[in-house]
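User: Here's a chain of 74 residues. Predict its fold as C-alpha cells.
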Amino acid sequence: MIPRDTVQRRFQVENKDIAYIVSMFECYDHFAIVRTVDRSRGWIELMIAPDFLHETEKMMIELAKEISITPIEI
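Assistant: Prediction complete.
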C-alpha cells in the first residue's frame, strides 16, 4: 500500500543500479522509500515525503551524474 502523504516519482535505471539507489536512500531516513516497479525494465518508484521533495530531487540530480537515470511520467 502506498502511503497517502507522499509524492510519487518514477525513473528508469539500469538493473545493476537499483540496489545502489535503494542503499543511498536508506542512508537518508525519511527522504523517500524506493520500490521496484518493474525490474526487467529497470523501473523504480520513489515515494517521497513532501517535506523532503527538494532534497530528494537534488539527490537524484547528483546520482544522475554517476549513473543513468531517466524520469518516467506516471
